Amino acid sequence: MFNDRKLSGPEALMEAQKIAFAPILFQCARLLRDYGIFELIYKNKRTGQSVEEIAKALNITTYAVQILCETGYSMGALDLKDEKYYITTVGYFLFTDEMTKVNMDFNHYVNYLGLYNLDESLKEQRPAGLHETFSKEETIYPILSQLPSDAKRSWFGFDHFYSDATFGKLIELMSQRGIKTLLDVGGNTGKFAIGLTSATTDTTVTILDHPGQINVALANAKEKGLEGRVLGEPMDLLDHTVAFPKGVDGVWMSQFLDCFGPNDIVNLLKRSRNALNDNGRVYIVEPFWDKSNPIGSFCLINTSPYFTALANGKSKMYRASEMEKFVIQAGLEVEEQISDLGFNSTLMICKKA
Ligand SMILES: C[S@@+](CC[C@H](N)C(=O)[O-])C[C@H]1O[C@@H](n2cnc3c(N)ncnc32)[C@H](O)[C@@H]1O
């Protein structure tokens, strides 16, 4: 998928340099965006902008403009002709594309410093980057709502960008299934629970998550007049001795199982199976990277090291074929798979085997 084009030796060596200098390109691209340089050059796309014009318009030094624009030129985001900078399509996407923006913010504010500790994280199977930057907790999840404001905004921005893109279609699908009782495991700030209960008259959704997230979800539900239909049970979902509430029509897990390693996934699926009534189903929503387009696969594969260094040291973005094995190990079987939901997501509907 990624290596179809044959490169000449010099082209391959240039690609290798882009990787070797990736952190520098990344930081310069971010500041070209955040200082408004890309936008200014775009607005003056016919005439181009000199270093002096950019420095004057944005009230920054000519030295800063030179440093950032020269790196911008080297990465293919800017063109330089007759001492004037012009924006390229890559530069245009770097400051206008929403996916690029959430990825960049997530990588800067959440991942950048902690990724320095990827080595120990991999060897010691713990999020050493989290421990060096934000918290000594075992995983990032209990402290999500206490992260520094930029990190918190970027984490939730990243999470919501990818799940919001699927929720419209998923709510439409799920509201037609006649579900009365649903557990939303890892329901986060309640976006799906609120969406589904708003689209139906008799569905009740119980969110299982850390207390910080449940409090936010219940407050959000109350604001929409949905108290009593969106409920919450705070729990540490990694404590596999605690059963989920039983006799439900469905267990919903959206962008949740990728937060765990294989053993925990199988245990969570077993507990989900035990919660179902006879006709109940487990609904898994994941952006599997083997079911995605090349841009989606690239983003998903490169999200995995965040799980290693910052989130928990054990999990990753999975392939659908890996998840199918976990489903079988938990005594379930895949009844139906619906792909191409929003941003490369797949809904896997599972019943008791
Ligand atoms: C990536 S978010 C997914 C949120 C939401 N389902 C969505 O589709 O956007 C994972 C959620 O799982 C929760 N979570 C992860 N590990 C947990 C644990 N051990 N106990 C309780 N909640 C946990 C997190 O707090 C977070 O709300």
TrEMBL record:
InterPro entries: BVU_1015-like_N, COMT-like, COMT_C, SAM-dependent_MTases_sf, WH-like_DNA-bd_sf, WH_DNA-bd_sf. PROSITE patterns: SAM_OMT_II (PS51683). One of its GO terms (biological process) is methylation. One of its GO terms (molecular function) is O-methyltransferase activity. Keywords: Methyltransferase, S-adenosyl-L-methionine, Transferase. Residues 16-85 form the BVU-1015-like N-terminal dimerisation-like domain. Pfam families: Dimerisation2-like_dom (PF21212), Methyltransf_2 (PF00891). Residues 168-331 form the O-methyltransferase C-terminal domain. This is SAM-dependent methyltransferase.
